[in-house]
Amino acid sequence: MDKYTLRAFAYAAIVTIGGFVFGLDAAVISGTLRYITLEFGLSDLQVGTVVSAPALGVLIALVITGAICDSIGRKKTLLLIAILYVLSAVGSAWATSYEMLVGARFIGGLAFTSLSLASMYIGEIAPPAQRGKLVSMNQLMIVLGLTAAYFSNYWLVGLLQSDATWVIDYNLQQDIWRWMLGVEIIPAVVWALLLLLVPLSPRWLVSKGRYDEARASLAKLMPADKIDDELAAIIASSQQQHQKPMKLTEQFQVMFEKRFRLAIMIGVIFAAVQPLTGVNPILFYAPMVFEQTGIGTNAAFAQTLIIGVVSFVFTALAIVLVDRLGRRPLVNFGLIASIACLVLCVTAFKQASYTLSQDAIGQIEVSIDSDVAAQLQPLVGETFDSDTGYKNALIAAIGQDTYKAHESSLIQAAVSINAMLVLIGIVGFIAAFHVSIGPLMWVVFSEIVPTQIRGVAIPTFALISSTISYFMQKFFPWQLANFGAADIFTSYAVAGVIGLVLLYRYLPETKNKSIEEVERLLNPQAS
């Protein structure tokens, strides 16, 4: 590997740190939910608002980022995004109210478009032979950030049991959620500083007529004897693209023409099915989900580590297999496995029962006020066949705030459930998702959308997926409280079945096919 390829790898690695910060930002909130609920006295819908605030931010950012990127360039836009991540992390860690926390998280959501910009920038500076690998680094960095968030949260929770002086001096017991959110500040600042080292995109410079600067950028990416030919090719391509540019409104109208109907339908199906299978609620509320099995808070945080590691391993596996096995086999297998794993979770929660015994109350009375323990006495010996029935009875007996403060221990004291079945189901689902519909959604989008409508079709798919993700995240705590875990996982499994039927029917195999070949495949009348 020559020095120019090494530089390309180095620049790509720097840019994809944004993916790491995204994964960290998205998952770190999972560990804070119990603490911020008590800190600010949040309702289930307010908890959902805190978690989903970034998803709302990205909906707005999707509309404006493209124009900003074309105006000031990829590098400066990435720098702006890095600064937004820093502001979000600082604001979240030092939030003094629920509203301030939601606002800070919303700002972080504005930065989530770093994912698409990173892929765009890498695609414009990478050597053709290395482009696929370098672009795929972004997805790996996302799950690496997610894994880091789970490990960071677990480590901080473990410190609560420590007698270290600094744990007491820095008030970790009370402010642990601030430390969890503040961890993001470090990689966000490092990313902003490292971005100063990457060159401007030569293709963007050419689009602005800044040919000398484009030549200087290319000099960092290839030998001197190749620069003139590469620059000439970029200029020719740029001029060809701008001979008859199609406005976004025109692209939107063309998108609904009959010849593009199948491609658009596949994109919409994929964009809806991917979030509807429930991956974001499971990832972002992981400790809360595991606590429903009665394993306790510390064990719930420990099990999230498995999710992080599995996410990383199976994303890497998807990158290895996607060009070997193809898109259809991975998508079909992933959906079948996802459905099977979600059914395991449904079975476990359907079979669960909740009985509060006198011995159990005695064991948890250490952490619960004696008056509260007395209020629980009428429930002793009564068996509930659903988590919602048991929780509603607890709230009626001791009040919403007291229940929230001791939810984990109260569930642990009463539940009878096959917790291993839930663990296998969730971990299996995460593995199936990350080896298939997770990373492959963007691959499929990039291959099925004809060049004429890419500028509007792919952002439309992203908007659909992001909108569904927002509502899935926002309402998960409310759904858990009102419908229960069994019904929630049933809805995810049903979405998976519908997606499997539709994508098995309509999704073509696009491996080793050019965009033009795929277009003919989806519109035979054009050939």
UniProtKB/TrEMBL annotation:
The chain crosses the membrane at residues 9-33, 45-65, 77-96, 102-122, 134-156, 176-200, 262-288, 300-322, 329-349, 419-444, 456-476, 488-507. This is Sugar porter family MFS transporter. It is found in: Membrane. PROSITE patterns: MFS, SUGAR_TRANSPORT_1. GO terms for cellular component: membrane. Residues 11-511 form the Major facilitator superfamily (MFS) profile domain. It comes from Neiella litorisoli. Its main location: membrane. Belongs to the major facilitator superfamily. Sugar transporter (TC 2.A.1.1) family. It is a multi-pass membrane protein. GO terms for molecular function: transmembrane transporter activity. The keyword Transmembrane applies. Keywords: Membrane, Transmembrane, Transmembrane helix, Transport. InterPro entries: MFS_dom (IPR020846), MFS_sugar_transport-like (IPR005828), MFS_trans_sf (IPR036259), Myo-inositol_Transporter (IPR050814), Sugar/inositol_transpt (IPR003663), Sugar_transporter_CS (IPR005829). Pfam families: Sugar_tr (PF00083).
